[in-house]
Design goal:
Shape: globular
Largest sheet: 8 strands, mixed
Helix content: 25-40%
Structural class: alpha/beta
Number of helices: 11
Radius of gyration: 22 Å
Strand content: 25-35%
Order of helices and strands: HEHEEHHEHEHEEHEEEEHEEEEHEEEHH
Number of strands: 18
Length: 417
């Protein structure tokens, strides 16, 4: 069934009892043309495999329920305000896909182009932001300088006084950037992929790989063995652990916990997504009124989807330095996602590292915003056995060649990316 205003009216007359299930719950078949492991970017990959390349004998394996991984554990920010050309082209292609994604998938992903504002606290930092903005504009990507008046309009409670702990002197804003509802994105891709005949297998954890010599020919799961002509891995922070089951002991990634937080609901107070330049803090306001915010990694390697208290103290203190009026606002909950941090802060989309295998990982802080273009580029790589033009710079072999994409310029330090 295609969702529409007419369908909504029709279902209203039946008491909403005739809506079909959003996606099927099939048992896994013995074999598929492609098995995609991971229900985040993997869902998008399966959808584009079916839609763009006609490969529909595909299974998506998710070890929990759809949305239980990083695709549902993030702060939903979407942007393309990067410094280096490869990152700019890739993420801006994703941003353009977001602009029509609800129509393409026939599902409201609640994409809101409320902008992303980066605050500067020193002349040198403002100069660095201006340099990045000029690089963006040279590549056709929108970016504007923002002065104190515009910042006060977007962030009414922010401390713009000269006595502020971190005085704000300006910033840059990308107005096309924004947020989307992460759960809706999962449901939209699942529904759209299912309509093309893709099997979505939940509660199906991969426990090993089937090999014919060096070639990967399928997966072993908690729901039985599944053969596959091609096996694609898109499991974010679990990449290292899963690849060890395939005999790949070393990859240029580390897994860290990244926490996020949500407060009680408030009246509209933050009209954009903003970042703090005196530390590491990003924040915005949800449609329900809660303020969401996050910051640095917890600083140690972990596969746990939870963090620790020192991090929230650090992030909350930065938030209060910006907006002191929030001191008595209550934090309702926190959650953690397992981020797969690469040595240069850029993702990996590649064939290999074993024959019959394809790898999508290393998204650091940027996985959610890249979901559409990541799925398209990964599907292209799987279908054609060659890199998509947008993802060609992000192949695994860049680390051997030394052609890293270090947008932040922090060197091979994953915890600082």
């Amino acid at each position: 069934m295609r969702y529409s205003a007419l369908a909504l009216i029709k279902q209203a007359f039946s008491g909403n009892r005739d809506w079909p299930e959003v996606w099927r719950k099939p048992d896994p078949k013995p074999a598929y043309d492609v098995v995609v492991v991971g229900g985040g970017h993997g869902l998008a990959t399966a959808y584009y495999l079916a839609r763009e390349f006609g490969i529909r004998n595909v299974a998506v394996l998710e070890k929990g329920w759809l949305g239980s991984g990083n695709i549902g554990r993030n702060t939903t920010t979407i942007r393309s305000n990067y410094m280096l050309a490869a990152s700019q082209r890739f993420y801006d292609a994703s941003l353009k896909m977001w602009e029509s994604l609800s129509q393409d998938l026939n599902y409201n992903v609640m994409f809101s182009q409320r902008g992303v504002l980066n605050l500067a606290h020193s002349p040198a930092q403002l100069d660095a932001y201006a340099k990045r903005g000029n690089e963006m504009r040279l590549n056709g990507i929108d970016c504007e300088m923002a002065g104190p008046k515009e910042i006060a309009r977007l962030l009414p409670g922010v401390d713009l006084s000269g006595s502020a702990r971190f005085p704000i002197i300006g910033g840059i804003i990308q107005r096309r950037a924004g947020t989307a509802r992460h759960d809706a994105v999962v449901w939209a891709y699942a529904r759209a992929a299912d309509r093309f005949g893709v099997d979505i297998i939940e509660n199906c954890e991969v426990t090993g790989f089937i090999r014919d010599g060096d070639r990967v020919t399928g997966v072993r799961t908690t729901r039985g063995d599944i053969a596959a002509s091609k096996t694609a891995i898109a499991v974010a922070g679990s990449t290292g652990a899963l690849m060890k089951k395939a005999g790949v002991e070393r990859l240029p990634i580390e897994s860290h916990v990244l926490q996020a937080y949500i407060t009680e609901a408030l009246k509209p107070a933050v009209d954009t997504v903003a970042t703090f330049g005196g530390g590491h803090l990003y924040f915005g306001q949800t449609d329900k009124g809660g303020l969401f915010f996050g910051g640095d990694l917890d600083g140690y390697n972990s596969y746990a989807q939870r963090g620790n208290l020192p991090n929230i103290e650090e992030v909350a203190s930065e938030f209060l330095a910006l907006i002191p009026a929030l001191a008595r606002v209550r934090v309702l909950r926190s959650w953690g996602g397992i981020t797969d941090m690469t040595m240069d802060g850029a993702p990996i989309i590649t064939s290999g590292p074993l024959p019959g295998m394809y790898l999508n990982c290393g998204w650091c802080y940027g996985g959610f915003k890249a979901t559409p273009v990541s799925g398209l580029a990964f599907a292209y790589t799987i279908a054609k056995d060659e890199p998509h033009p947008l993802s060609a710079p992000f192949r695994l072999e860049r680390f051997q060649r030394g052609t890293v994409i270090d947008d932040k310029g922090s060197g091979p330090t994953p915890y600082q990316q």
